[in-house]
Amino acid sequence: MNRFENKVVIVTGAGSGLGQAASLQLASENAKLVLVDLSLEGLKETEEKVLAISSNTEVLLVKANVADEEAVKGYVDATVEKYGKIDAFFNNAGIEGKQNLTEDFGTDEFEKVVSINLNGVFYGMKHVLKVMKDQGTGSIVNTASVGGIRGVGNQSGYAASKHGVVGLTRNSAVEYGEFGVSIKAIAPGAIMTPMVEGSLRQIGGDDWESAGKEFVKGNPMRRFGKPEEVGYLVAFLLSKQADFINGVVVPIDGGQSYKY
Asked: Which segments constitute the Ketoreductase domain (predicted)?
């Protein structure tokens, strides 16, 4: 498929995990990619993988901290300066943070997680939406989480920030639908990414793989999701095929969010 031929797509958190997986899928469909991450090393790795898929893909790398509004404005301005438009935006960058009961959750840690996961998403939407509103077209997918639609335990900062992402998504979808912009969110469950591996290491230490095997027993499909499975979903939701899907949060979790 070439759903993104001549389309300009920004991906944040593109240096690894879901951002990298989505970038690879978008590259396979001929998107012009603006890849954003705090890790320049991660960006270069993604660029190398993208070009291995499609040597003709245009790639712009931008190192930026999404918790810094000026940096966010910077990657948006760089995109418009180079391409003159933004067709789609995977607003994905985020962290999990440390695990702890709410009473023991550090205030600094809470603020750090919220600043990246929630403020960063807000800044991205704020500056990208200005461009898309003027264009009269555009599509945004925000990364929420199963932890944004139910409790997950020991992750106050993460759950609060991801619930906030869900609220921002729904609210902005109401505001910008009349301008031709569709906004939705995905709610991944346990997808085997470096972030999920880090979470398992917090639980199981060096025996984190055994902790993972125990963890997936609680999932109806009895396995972790694959990053590329999320990439397929993101590409669909960003495409013109999904224009009339607006304001929804799509779980991709093997049924985890429906199991009690």
From this structure: 7-189
- pTM value surpassing 0.70: yes
Average pLDDT over the chain, rounded to whole? 93
Q: Residue 131: is its pLDDT beyond 70?
A: yes
Tokens representing 175 are: 């505001």
> Which pair of tokens denotes residue 145?
């989480």
State the amino acid at position 51 in one-letter form: L
CA–CA gap between residue 236 and residue 233 (Å, rounded): 5
Residue pair 9/89 in contact (Cβ under 8 Å)? The answer is yes
Q: Which residues contact 112 (CB under 8 A, 6 or more apart)?
A: 95, 97, 157
8-189+227-251 has CATH 3.40.50.720 classification: yes
Structure tokens at 212: 């993972």
Residue with tokens 């920030």: 161
Angle, in degrees to the nearest 10, between helices 17-28 and 40-53: 30
Torsion of the alpha carbons at 191, 185, 130 and 158, rounded to the nearest 10? -60
Query: In this structure, are strands 138-143 and 88-91 parallel, antiparallel, or unpaired?
Result: parallel
Give the span between the Cα atoms of 94 and 66, in whole angstroms.
Answer: 9
Alpha-carbon distance of 162 to 108, in angstroms, equals: 18
Q: Which among 60, 57, 49, 84 has a CA at the least distance from the CA of 2? A: 57
What would the mean pLDDT of 199-214 be, rounded to a whole number? 71
- pLDDT bucket at 43, cuts 50 / 70 / 90: very high
Nearest to 185 by CA among 117, 251, 113, 115: 251
Per-residue pLDDT tens over the stretch 174-183: 999 999 999 9
Q: Could you tell me the residue ranges of all domains in the chain? A: 8-189+227-251, 194-224
Catalytic residues: 158
* Helices and strands counted in the chain (H then E): 9, 7
